[in-house]
C-alpha cells in the first residue's frame, strides 16, 4: 500500500481529533471517508496530505515518512482539494488551473507545451473551458468548485485527496463529478474523498471508511459497510437498506 | 491587459523622471538637462548635484516600498496589510529618532541598521500580539494602533530632546528634501533584496490560494511567509532610514497594480515597483512645484491620497 497511517493522532492546538488511527488506503480504488460532522474525516485527509503534522504516529508514502520526502516530489504524487478556498483576486480561471502544474515547472513557473495540453485537458473534462478567460472571483460557487477541482487534476498525481468535492454543486454537476471520478479511477488514479451523501458514496465508491469520534468504526465494500446497525451507531439514524434499482448498490432510506 | 500595462507604466516612469529633472523652483528646458550633467555648465549644480540624485532616490524608494507592500499583502493575503499599516515603518522611525536624539554625533551611515532593528522589533511585536492565525482585520487594527503608539513615542522623544527637533521633524514626515548622492549610495546595497523578492513570485502565487493548497502544491508555507516578511522588513527599514516613513505607498501601490495587471506575481511584483516609483516621483514633483520655493514633504502628499484610499478599503472589507 502506498499511503498508510500508523498509530496516527492529529488535531489542532494540542487537541487530538483523529486518535491512533491505523489505515491502509487500498490502491487503485475510489474510497469514501464517511462520518458525522466533527468525526475527524477532514483532519485525517489533511494529515495524509501533510497539511497537518502528526502529534503521534506517522503517515507513510511508499513506506517512508511523509514529512521526510521532498515537498516538490510529493506534490507530484499526492494532490489535495481542500474543503474551503479563499477567493483569489485578479486571477483568471486558466491561470488558476495552470498553478496546478507548479510541482513540474521551474522557479519562474513557466508553462511548456506539455503542461498546456494537460491544462486544456482538465479544463475540458471539468467543463470549464469556456470560462478560461474569466476571473475566478466573478464565478458562482459551483463553477469555482469545478475550477479548483481542475487545478487539483492539473497536478496530475496518481493519488487524489478530495474534501467534499461536491460542495456548492447542483445535482447534475454532482453526478458529472462522480462520473469524472470514475473515469479518472479507470485511468489508474486512487481517489480518497470525503463525502456527506451516503448513497452517493455507496453508488460510486469501491470502498467506504466510516469514522466516529476520531476513530475508524468500520471499512470495506459498500455492501458490507452500509448496514442498518452502522447507520444507527454512527449517524444515530433509523434507516432501512434497500437495493438501488439502477446500480444495484446498497441505498439507505431514512425512516 | 497585463502586457499592455507594462509599456505604459515604463513610459510614464520615463516621463516623470524627466519632469522631475526639469521642474522645480526653477524650470530647466529639456535641452539644457543633458548639459546640466557636465561639470562647468550653468545648471550643473541644480541638475547633477540636486535633482538627479533626488529623482533616482524617489524612484528607488518608491519601488522598494511598493515591493515591500506587495510581499506583505501576498503572504498575509490581505489588501489592508502593508509595512506602514502594520507599524513596521514607524518602528523603524522610532529607532532612528532614538538613535539621532541620544547619539547626535554618531555616524549617520549606521541609520539603516538602526532602522532595521526598529522595524524588526515592530514586526515581532505585532507577531507576538496577534499570533499566527489571527484575523486580518485584527492584524490591521493592531498595526495601526502600534503605529500610533510609536508615533507618540517619537513625539515624546522630540519634546525631551528639542535640540535635534528640526532635523528629525523634517525627516519624520517622509521627505526627499536635501537627499543626494550620499543617501543614494547608502541605499544601493539594499537593492540586492529585489532579485530575492522576484525569486518568490511563483510560491507567492500559490500561497494566495490558501495554505492547504499551497502545501499540497509543494510550497513550504511557513518558510515562504518568513522569507517574504524578512525581505519586506529589510526593504522598509532601508527606505525609512533614508527618507523617513513615507505613508501609504506600500499599501496603495500594490493594490492599484493588482487592479491593473492582475494577481500573478511574476507580473505583479515588477509592475508594482514601477507604480510605486511613479507615485513617489509624482508626489515629490507635486511637493516641489505646488508652491515654490517652499517644499512640502512627499510623505504628506502620499498621505493625502493614501489615507482616504485606506479608509475606502477598510469600509469595503466585511
Short key terms for the protein model shown above:
heterodimer, A: 255 residues, alpha/beta, Rossmann fold, four-stranded antiparallel sheet, B: 318 residues, mainly alpha, ABC transporter involved in vitamin B12 uptake, BtuC, globular
What does this structure look like?
Chain A: This is Iron complex transport system ATP-binding protein. Chain A: One of its GO terms (cellular component) is plasma membrane. Chain A: It is found in: Cell membrane. Chain A: Residues 3-238 form the ABC transporter domain. Chain A: Keywords: ATP-binding, Cell membrane, Ion transport, Iron, Iron transport, Membrane, Nucleotide-binding, Transport. The complex is a heterodimer of chains A (255) and B (318). In chain A, 42% of the residues are buried. The termini of chain A are far apart. Chain A folds into 2 domains: 1-77 and 157-221, P-loop containing nucleotide triphosphate hydrolases (Rossmann fold, 3-Layer(aba) Sandwich); 87-156, no CATH class. In chain A, strand 1 and strand 2 (15-24) form a beta hairpin. Chain A has 9 helices and 12 strands. The longest helix of chain A is centred in the last third of the chain and has 16 residues, at 171-186. In chain A, helix 3 runs parallel beside helix 5 (141-154) and helix 4 (113-125) runs antiparallel to helix 5 (141-154). By secondary structure, chain A is α/β, with parallel strands linked by helices. Chain B has 318 residues and is an all-alpha fold. Chain B has one domain (2-316): ABC transporter involved in vitamin B12 uptake, BtuC (Orthogonal Bundle). Chain B has helices at 2-22, 30-36, 44-76, 88-102, 111-130, 136-160, 165-172, 181-187, 193-199, 201-207, 211-216, 221-243, 249-261, 265-289, 298-316. Chain B is globular and about 65 Å long. The model of chain B has no long low-confidence stretch (mean pLDDT 85). The interface between A and B is medium-sized, with 35 and 26 residues.
Topology:
The complex is a heterodimer of chains A (255) and B (318).
Chain A: E1 3-12, E2 15-24, E3 30-34, H1 41-48, E4 56-61, E5 64-65, H2 71-75, E6 78-81, H3 93-99, H4 113-125, H5 141-154, E7 159-163, H6 171-186, E8 190-194, H7 198-204, E9 207-212, E10 215-220, H8 222-225, H9 228-235, E11 239-243, E12 250-254
Parallel strand pairs in A: 3-8, 3-9, 6-7, 7-8
Antiparallel strand pairs in A: 1-2, 1-4, 4-5, 9-10, 11-12
Helix pairs in contact in A: 3-5, 4-5
Chain B: H1 2-22, H2 30-36, H3 44-76, H4 88-102, H5 111-130, H6 136-160, H7 165-172, H8 181-187, H9 193-199, H10 201-207, H11 211-216, H12 221-243, H13 249-261, H14 265-289, H15 298-316
Helix pairs in contact in B: 1-3, 1-14, 3-8, 3-12, 3-13, 3-14, 4-5, 4-6, 4-12, 5-6, 5-12, 9-12, 13-14, 14-15
GO molecular function, one term (chain A): ATP binding
Family (chain A): Belongs to the ABC transporter superfamily.
InterPro entries (chain A): AAA+_ATPase, ABC_transporter-like_ATP-bd, ABC_transporter-like_CS, P-loop_NTPase, Siderophore_ABC-ATPase
Amino acid at each position: 500500500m502506498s499511503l498508510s497511517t500508523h498509530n496516527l493522532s492529529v488535531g489542532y492546538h494540542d487537541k487530538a481529533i483523529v486518535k491512533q488511527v491505523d489505515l491502509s488506503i487500498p490502491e487503485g480504488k475510489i474510497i469514501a471517508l464517511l462520518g458525522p460532522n466533527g468525526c475527524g474525516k477532514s483532519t485525517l485527509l489533511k494529515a495524509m496530505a501533510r497539511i497537518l503534522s502528526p502529534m503521534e504516529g506517522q503517515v507513510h508514502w511508499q513506506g517512508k515518512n511523509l514529512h521526510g520526502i521532498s515537498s516538490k516530489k510529493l506534490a507530484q504524487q499526492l494532490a489535495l482539494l481542500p474543503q474551503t478556498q479563499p477567493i483569489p483576486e485578479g486571477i483568471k480561471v486558466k491561470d488558476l488551473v495552470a498553478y496546478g502544474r507548479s510541482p513540474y515547472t521551474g522557479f519562474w513557473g513557466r508553462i511548456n507545451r506539455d503542461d498546456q495540453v494537460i491544462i486544456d485537458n482538465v479544463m475540458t473534462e471539468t467543463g470549464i473551458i469556456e470560462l478560461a478567460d474569466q476571473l475566478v472571483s466573478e464565478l458562482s460557487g459551483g463553477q469555482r468548485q469545478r475550477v479548483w477541482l481542475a487545478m487539483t487534476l492539473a497536478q496530475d498525481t496518481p493519488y487524489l485527496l478530495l474534501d467534499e468535492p461536491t460542495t456548492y454543486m447542483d445535482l447534475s454537476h454532482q453526478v458529472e463529478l462522480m462520473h469524472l471520478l470514475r473515469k479518472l479511477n479507470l485511468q489508474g488514479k486512487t481517489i480518497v474523498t470525503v463525502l456527506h451523501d451516503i448513497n452517493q458514496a455507496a453508488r460510486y465508491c469501491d470502498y467506504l471508511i466510516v469514522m466516529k469520534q476520531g476513530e475508524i468504526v468500520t471499512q470495506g465494500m459498500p455492501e458490507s459497510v452500509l448496514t442498518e446497525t452502522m447507520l444507527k451507531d454512527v449517524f444515530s439514524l433509523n434507516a432501512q437498506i434497500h437495493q438501488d434499482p439502477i446500480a444495484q448498490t446498497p441505498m439507505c432510506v431514512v425512516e | 491587459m497585463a502586457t499592455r500595462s507594462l509599456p505604459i507604466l515604463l513610459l510614464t516612469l520615463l516621463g516623470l523622471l524627466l519632469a522631475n529633472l526639469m521642474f522645480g523652483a526653477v524650470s530647466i528646458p529639456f535641452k539644457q538637462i543633458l548639459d546640466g550633467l557636465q561639470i562647468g555648465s550653468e545648471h550643473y549644480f541644480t541638475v547633477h548635484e540636486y535633482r538627479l540624485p533626488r529623482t533616482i532616490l524617489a524612484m528607488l524608494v518608491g519601488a522598494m516600498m511598493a515591493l515591500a507592500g506587495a510581499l506583505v499583502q501576498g503572504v498575509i493575503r490581505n489588501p489592508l496589510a502593508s509595512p506602514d499599516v502594520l507599524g513596521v515603518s514607524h518602528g523603524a522611525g522610532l529607532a532612528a529618532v532614538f538613535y539621532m536624539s541620544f547619539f547626535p554625533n554618531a555616524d549617520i551611515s549606521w541609520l539603516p541598521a538602526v532602522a532595521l532593528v526598529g522595524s524588526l522589533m515592530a514586526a515581532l511585536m505585532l507577531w507576538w500580539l496577534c499570533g499566527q492565525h489571527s484575523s486580518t482585520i485584527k492584524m490591521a487594527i493592531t498595526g495601526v494602533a502600534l503605529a500610533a503608539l510609536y508615533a507618540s513615542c517619537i513625539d515624546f522623544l522630540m519634546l525631551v530632546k528639542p535640540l535635534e527637533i528640526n532635523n528629525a521633524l523634517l525627516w519624520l514626515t517622509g521627505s526627499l528634501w536635501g537627499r543626494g548622492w550620499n543617501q543614494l549610495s547608502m541605499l544601493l546595497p539594499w537593492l540586492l533584496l529585489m532579485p530575492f523578492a522576484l525569486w518568490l513570485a511563483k510560491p507567492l502565487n500559490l500561497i494566495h490560494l490558501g495554505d492547504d493548497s499551497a502545501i499540497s502544491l509543494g510550497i513550504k508555507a511557513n518558510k515562504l511567509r518568513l522569507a517574504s516578511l524578512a525581505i519586506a522588513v529589510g526593504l522598509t527599514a532601508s527606505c525609512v532610514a533614508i527618507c523617513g516613513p513615507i505613508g501609504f505607498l506600500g499599501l496603495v501601490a500594490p493594490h492599484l497594480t493588482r487592479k491593473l495587471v492582475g494577481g500573478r506575481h511574476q507580473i505583479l511584483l515588477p509592475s508594482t515597483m514601477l507604480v510605486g516609483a511613479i507615485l513617489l516621483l509624482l508626489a515629490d514633483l507635486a511637493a516641489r512645484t505646488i508652491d515654490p520655493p517652499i517644499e512640502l514633504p512627499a510623505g504628506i502628499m502620499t498621505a493625502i491620497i493614501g489615507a482616504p484610499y485606506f479608509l475606502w478599503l477598510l469600509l469595503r472589507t466585511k
